Amino acid sequence: RQKAAFIVGATSISYKRELNPFQRFEVHSQVVAFDDRWMTICHEFRSPGKGDMFAIAMCRAVMRHRHGFCNPAHVISDLGINVDSKPPCHPVVMDASILAAQLDATLRKLTRNTA
Fold it and tell me: What's the CA gap between 31 and 39, in Å, rounded?
């Protein structure tokens, strides 16, 4: 086992219902896609028991340890999950990942030009 930090690179959230202060909720998370560096995780914020959805979020993240980045396939495999049985990536997730990468590249160019 190695210690690693979970670093969020991008996130998007869509709110479906009002969530009052101190109201109880559950977060259901699932890795929906990954490559050799990044993983995309879907988080659903739901009411306990009834399962009504308050919000849904997509998170693009990496895991980093002291020697560099962790390969998501290795991390998932270490958790005892069969990496070969992963479902194909949904086109919406791929589109979101591509857009996030394009936005990141554009913002990097803008910050270089203003510095």
Answer: 7
